[in-house]
Design brief:
By secondary structure, this protein is of the alpha/beta class. It has 2 domains: 2-146 and 309-340, Medium-chain alcohol dehydrogenases, catalytic domain (Quinone Oxidoreductase, Chain A, domain 1); 151-287, NAD(P)-binding Rossmann-like Domain (Rossmann fold), CATH 3.40.50.720. It is built from 11 helices and 19 strands. The strands form 5 sheets. Strands 3, 6, 7, 10, 11, 18 and 19 form a 7-stranded mixed beta sheet that branches. Strands 14-13-12-15-16-17 form a 6-stranded parallel beta sheet, sandwiched between helices. It has a two-stranded antiparallel sheet with strand order 1-2. Strand 13 (191-196), helix 6 (199-207) and strand 14 (212-215) form a beta-alpha-beta unit. The structure holds 1,4-dihydronicotinamide adenine dinucleotide and 2-amino-3-ketobutyric acid. The site of 1,4-dihydronicotinamide adenine dinucleotide (NAI) has 27 residues, from helix 5, strand 13 and helix 8. Residues 1-24 are annotated as: Disordered.
């Protein structure tokens, strides 16, 4: 099977690898669509993200969906021909975190395209059947692949307890921010403010329904939020940029008693943060790591047309052109690239 292998920084090689056989509890999936995530681009460019260092060769890609072509002997509920979205993190199922239900916090998780685990820029993946979610007829495999970043948005909104009538500030209009905006709207938020430093990103967020956009290179975020909320502040702030100034400004933009959800990964682990403001205003600050139990919700939202994920895809490319696709994904205005495979 044809596989794109990251052989060294900024260097993919296309190689033939043997097609895997599904284990007893696995499904063999012919991959149809794989999104290019910011983390894939980071590994491509720098060979590491924090403590995760690429031991070459590595197969990238963790936002994937495709068609089941074979099933292990113990698998029930899925059969060849079914289209599925693959949840990329398979936990150990035995540790204290897994047993508590926080399987996304499992320290032995096998997460696609996070070293040393291979991902989905390949023609076939064998994957545990319970982490393969059947797609209804009206949900495409491209949408199935984007259940992954949508899940990050859904989990962030759950962490922030976003509810009916809320005003939500989403900081950062990359794919994660844009899909957090979709998830917030679906959770009942009626006012969504999006901040960014790139005008095109904000224009795109506005086209996709942001009620207010704030270019923080020109406008003070706290002032803009104060004006929009009559001095109250946002009920929930979802920080999805990872930029230090944005992280710091979350406590100024949120209302007293509101919630800040930190999703964006800061370059440095330590960011100066006004703790007194957190205490005085009784702000709940939550970290949000990946997601758990979101795929069914993501697929239901897609089937009901309650969210739009395909609209964030701005370019598609076949596997053979993956190098060019990654070069394009590195452009500042790029949003979401998708590697597509012929059926
Ligand atoms: N916690 C988690 O489980 C996950 C975290 N992430 C992280 O979430 C963040 C967002 O991911 P993507 O959307 O893929 O990244 P992205 O890089 O495409 O988007 C970030 C956006 O933030 C904007 N930005 C930069 N400085 C800003 C500022 N001061 N204020 C507001 N916006 C600013 C950028 O212009 C860009 O549009 C990244 O840090 C990524 O590593 C991604 C997936 C999962
Ligand atoms: C941090 C990322 O972008 C990646 N999606 C991951 O969950 O590791």
């Amino acid at each position: 099977m044809r596989t794109a292998v990251l052989a060294e920084p900024t260097q993919f090689e296309l190689e033939e690898r043997p097609r895997p056989s599904p284990g007893p509890d696995d499904v063999l999936v012919a991959i149809r669509d794989v999104g290019i995530c910011g983390s894939d681009v980071h590994y491509y460019e720098h060979g590491r993200i924090g403590d995760y260092v690429v031991d070459y060769p590595l197969v990238l890609g963790h936002e994937s969906a495709g068609e089941v072509v074979d099933v292990g002997e113990e698998v029930t509920g899925l059969e060849p021909g079914d289209r599925v979205a693959l949840e990329p993190g398979v936990p150990c199922r035995r540790c204290a975190h897994c047993k508590r239900g926080d399987y996304h916090l499992c320290e032995d998780v096998r997460f696609m395209a996070t070293p040393p685990h291979d991902g989905a820029f390949t023609e076939y993946v064998s994957w545990p059947a319970d982490f393969a979610y059947q797609l209804p007829e009206n949900v495409s495999t491209a949408e199935g692949a984007l259940c992954e970043p949508l899940s990050v948005g859904i989990h962030a909104c759950r962490r922030g307890d976003v509810g009916t009538g809320d005003t939500v500030l989403v900081a950062g209009a990359g794919p994660i921010g844009l899909l957090a905006m979709e998830a917030a709207r679906a959770a009942g938020a009626t006012d969504i403010v999006v901040s960014d430093v790139v005008e095109e990103k904000l224009d795109f967020a506005a086209e996709r329904g942001a009620d207010l956009t704030v270019d923080v290179t020109e406008t003070d975020l706290e002032t803009a939020i104060d004006e929009y909320t009559d001095g109250v502040g946002a009920d929930v702030v979802v920080e999805a940029s990872g930029a230090d100034p944005s992280i710091q400004s979350t406590v100024d933009a949120v209302r007293r008693g509101g919630t800040v959800v930190l999703v964006g990964l800061a370059d440095e682990a330590t960011v100066p943060f006004d703790v007194l403001e957190v205490i005085d205003n009784e702000i709940d600050v939550h970290g949000s790591f990946r997601y758990k139990n979101t795929y069914d919700a993501a697929i239901d939202l897609l089937a009901d047309d309650a969210v739009d994920v395909e609209g964030i895809v701005d370019f598609e490319s076949p596997l053979d052109d993956i190098e060019a696709a990654f070069q394009r994904a590195m452009e500042p205005a790029a949003i979401k690239g998708m590697i597509t495979f012929d059926p």
